[in-house]
Amino acid sequence: MLHFERWKIALIALLTLAGFLYTAPNFLPKAALDEMPSFLPHKQINLGLDLRGGSYLLLQVDTASVTHDRLQQLVNDIRKALRNAEVLYTGLGVNGEAVTIRITKPEDVDKSLKAIRDLSTVVTSNLLSGGLPQRDLSVANSGGLITVTLSETAKVARAQSAIQQSMEIVRRRIDELGTTEPVIQQQGADRILVQVPGLGDPQRLKKLLGQTAKLNFRLVDTSTTAQQAMATHTIPAGAEVLYMTEDPTRPLLVQRRVMVGGDNLVDATPGFDQRSGEPIVSFRFDSTGARLFGEVTRDNVGKPFAIVLDNKVISAPVIREPILGGTGQISGNFTVQQANDLAILLRAGALPAPLNVLEERTVGPGLGADSIRAGTIASIIGSVAVIVFMIAAYGLFGVFANLALLVNIALIMGALSMLQATLTLPGIAGIVLTIGTAVDANVLIYERIREELRSGKSVIAAIEAGYHRALATILDANITHFISAAVLFELGSGPVRGFAVTLAIGVVTSVFTAFTVNRLIVATWVRRRRPKLLVL
Amino acid sequence: MKRLKLVPDNTSFSFVKFRHIAVGLSVAVMLASVVLLFARGLNFGIDFEGGTVIEIATKGPADISGLRTQLGGLGLGDLQLQRFGEDNDVLIRIGTAHGASATDDTGQAAVKKVKDTLGTSVEYRRIESVGPQVSGELIKSATMAVVVAVALMFVYIWFRFEWQFGLGAVLALIHDVMATIGIFALLQMEFNLTTIAALLTIVGYSMNDTVVVFDRIRENLRKFKKMDLGELIDLSINETLARTIMTSATTLIALFALFIFGGEVIRSFTFAMIFGIFVGTYSSIFVAAPVLIAIGVKREWGSGALGRGKVEKKA
């Protein structure tokens, strides 16, 4: 156990050197790192949100509303189809998870069924039908009452595409905030995990993500006022009452028909109105949007035009003249930030469904910095105490163990830097704990050597036997430790996972250092000194 | 140079003699934990119960009762305020309404209300909000994790030793986990996800300790084929005692550094681990080993498996 082949010594030295090299960037300022030659490692340890500050949000895509939207759209399609087929009907509407409709004349039923069936399209979902194509609508008839439901495959396919789309839009909105390295991942069937480091104000992030941002332009119904319509309960057909964003108590009667939708926007930028100087958002349509917008404004000069965002009216200016260039501006007594955020939302596009916040964990930069400081102090004090204790207990061999411990810490930090694993506050605790347990391997060996010495073996034989016999024990003991770290990794998220990672790395490196670095040092010492007597 | 020795050489305590007392004590602790668990319950953090925690730092010492009046009128439901570490640190905890729907956004609404009320006069150090759906899942996965970890340990020990050893080790683990949960119920310390992380670490550590003792027992079983099992276990525990105490000591030193200097956020986490080191060390000596006496072990160990039991000299 005390003999080392040359290549092994070289390998140990190389690994140790690599550990220190990969650890080094963490102690260098950014400027020095930039000047270093490119063959040297540059990566610094990735700090978790709890250390650098930032927000962790778990969002759920409201898939029920995706289904509901689809059914609502189906109602419109069926209305159009039956009108074309010249069928008389009553009671068309969404009824729970289905669209129901009663056909007035029995002889029209077959014709209606065909018209509705023609609306269905083929969908595939690998999840449920094993990739087999399937119709998205199932249509049933019982005595003239037709029920149209969405197939399970269609729902899943729609939900999946809604999530993909939501992720894309969430990404675009967050990118607009200009933060570094946001993480956006799908989690489970209908969830999106968002991690945004170093954000001062999570409220703004949540506000940006909390809006679906469906924008559309509609005409204001001027046949009566909203107050009057509500008082007499006679809301004109094709109109609805919406409220103003600025003043949620002020109703406005707006036509249901969308003249131009937000999906026709190609750009939106915040700015200031040239006359009044107030913050505005100017926008530009694509060619279809520009044409539609031009037609509407040309035909409705002098009438108010409502700009509706998520079913709230931002403003309803009067059309002064036809706007043919495809550009316009939205004003609504915005603050600069509101104008900014609206522009972001419009540029990024609308979410297909609302997002609910299931879980939020936000750490302010102040607490993060405090945690780093506390963690560092605890690590240093912990290490020093363990080092002193080891020397007090084992003397020179304690020093050897401490050298191995130093290499161990370098290897852990080097591995964390190289793997770009995330260091969290519990992760720091994991390192400190590892410092405490890392010496365990050495303790096992040294105690074994003490025993062997007591049994009357020569120094060299005792050291040989100590390393040899402790090996299996150390492996067994550390494999169990590793298993619990692995389970923890599987269970955990965020900070807890960071703890599991450092723990697992620590287990591996401490076994390695005890059996290579420490043994090499001891072996070298034995060869040089040829001790006849060992007081351990 | 005088060496620090926590355990004198060649100890020969009879641990086995105390096993009846130890078993009585362990059973009492476990029963007490169960009783406490049902009588007082655990002080679940928001990870497991849902709800919102906001940590704020005020300018100057915090006026808790003033804050309470300010926030009490918001209709936030179950509201708790407490000092957290420093004088100007306050933890605001808001429970979720019972029967809230899975996609309920009340947590977000509560955060907004608090922020609107306190404005920018305070620093928001931390905001955590967990919905009831997520907290339900977290309870499930945390319980799973502990069970899976213990089961894997059993399988590993069974594979490396014998099933009797596996059973002894697992009983010791269950003892440790229950005692730790019991102390959390007793002290009403917050029980959250990091506590589960601590529990799993304790499982790993306690196992580590147990394996070292077991390893020595197995070695001695090969060496002394005729020795009485009780005597043999005593011998093995005594032989490994110095190591057990030394490792516990270094680990505790590191953990105490964390407990004292590591900050308020991880204090309950480190507390759980410190407690766990004590029970874990106790259980490998007084729970795991006596189980072997109770159920007996195979005495016919072949020697030399994996090179143990005899010293091979390499040139």
UniProtKB/TrEMBL annotation, chain A:
It comes from Parvibaculum sedimenti. Forms a complex with SecF. Part of the essential Sec protein translocation apparatus which comprises SecA, SecYEG and auxiliary proteins SecDF-YajC and YidC. InterPro entries: SecD (IPR005791), SecD/SecF_arch_bac (IPR022813), SecD/SecF_CS (IPR022646), SecD_1st (IPR048631), SecD_SecF_C (IPR048634), SecD_SecF_C_bact (IPR055344), SecDF_P1_head (IPR054384). It is a multi-pass membrane protein. The chain crosses the membrane at residues 377-396, 403-421, 427-446, 467-489, 501-522. Belongs to the SecD/SecF family. SecD subfamily. This is Protein translocase subunit SecD. Part of the Sec protein translocase complex. Interacts with the SecYEG preprotein conducting channel. SecDF uses the proton motive force (PMF) to complete protein translocation after the ATP-dependent function of SecA. GO terms for cellular component: plasma membrane. One of its GO terms (biological process) is protein targeting. It holds the Pfam family SecD_SecF_C. It is found in: Cell membrane. The keyword Isomerase does not apply. Residues 357-527 form the Protein export membrane protein SecD/SecF C-terminal domain. GO terms for molecular function: protein-transporting ATPase activity. Residues 240-353 form the SecDF P1 head subdomain domain. SUPFAM superfamilies: Multidrug efflux transporter AcrB transmembrane domain. Residues 163-221 form the Protein translocase subunit SecDF P1 domain. Keywords: Cell inner membrane, Cell membrane, Membrane, Protein transport, Translocation, Transmembrane, Transmembrane helix, Transport. PANTHER family: PROTEIN TRANSLOCASE SUBUNIT SECD (PTHR30081:SF1), PROTEIN-EXPORT MEMBRANE PROTEIN SEC (PTHR30081).
Automatic annotation (TrEMBL), chain B:
Its main location: membrane. Keywords: Cell membrane, Membrane, Protein transport, Translocation, Transmembrane, Transmembrane helix, Transport. Residues 112-296 form the Protein export membrane protein SecD/SecF C-terminal domain. GO terms for molecular function: protein-transporting ATPase activity. The chain crosses the membrane at residues 21-39, 138-159, 166-187, 193-217, 245-263, 269-295. GO terms for cellular component: plasma membrane. It is a multi-pass membrane protein. Pfam families: Sec_GG, SecD_SecF_C. GO terms for biological process: intracellular protein transmembrane transport; protein targeting; protein transport by the Sec complex. It comes from the Bacteria. It is found in: Cell membrane. Belongs to the SecD/SecF family. SecF subfamily. In the N-terminal section; belongs to the SecD/SecF family. SecD subfamily. Forms a complex with SecD. Part of the essential Sec protein translocation apparatus which comprises SecA, SecYEG and auxiliary proteins SecDF-YajC and YidC. Part of the Sec protein translocase complex. Interacts with the SecYEG preprotein conducting channel. SecDF uses the proton motive force (PMF) to complete protein translocation after the ATP-dependent function of SecA. This is Protein-export membrane protein SecF. The lineage of its organism: Bacteria, Pseudomonadati, Pseudomonadota, Alphaproteobacteria, Hyphomicrobiales.
